[in-house]
Write a structure and sequence with these properties.
By secondary structure, this protein is an all-alpha fold. The protein has 7 helices and 2 strands; from the N terminus they run αααββαααα. Bound molecules: zinc ion.
């Protein structure tokens, strides 16, 4: 049985510099300062004039990054992180975002279909490619592209 002794720096919970946090999170130092100014992370204590970040701050920053990837604005993120905001309001924000992300997926799936059609079409003129220009109001899968008017060569 041994007594665990750690170096002071290792056990100090508030010991991370802003550079350390930037390296750990992948955030730019300017972004960390910005989030602090916006109040998205609590006031960061300063020792010797330098910010010293605790585990809570880095966890909060990681959470902000994840939530940002979902497309939330910083204002929305503030609401999501604020446990004083009613849970039903935060939940509504998430439900709305989910719906918006699903819309984006549908849009991107439509882009994928157009690109696949254009790649498989083989015509030489994108401007006249019915699969691209007529895709919105024609059923390209039923209308052989070669029969569409204009601009195609066999
Ligand atoms: Zn075409």
């Amino acid at each position: 049985m041994s007594v665990v002794t750690s170096k002071p720096a290792a056990i100090e919970p508030n010991g991370l510099s802003i550079g350390d946090v930037a390296r750990q999170t992948g955030l730019a130092i300017s972004a960390i300062r910005y989030y602090e100014r916006l109040g998205l992370i609590g006031p960061v204590p300063r020792w010797g004039g330098k910010r010293r970040f605790g585990a809570n701050a880095t966890r909060r920053l990681r959470t902000i990054m994840i939530v940002q990837r979902a497309g939330f604005s910083l204002d929305e993120i503030r609401t999501l992180l604020d446990t004083d905001t009613r849970q039903v309001a935060r939940r509504r924000l998430a439900v709305e975002k989910l719906s918006s992300v699903r819309d984006q997926i549908r849009e991107l799936e439509s882009v994928v279909s157009s690109l696949e059609a254009a790649i498989s079409c083989g015509c030489n003129n994108l401007e006249h490619c019915a699969l691209i220009t007529g895709g919105a109001d024609r059923d390209a899968t039923r209308q052989p592209h070669g029969d569409a008017e204009g601009g195609h060569y066999a």
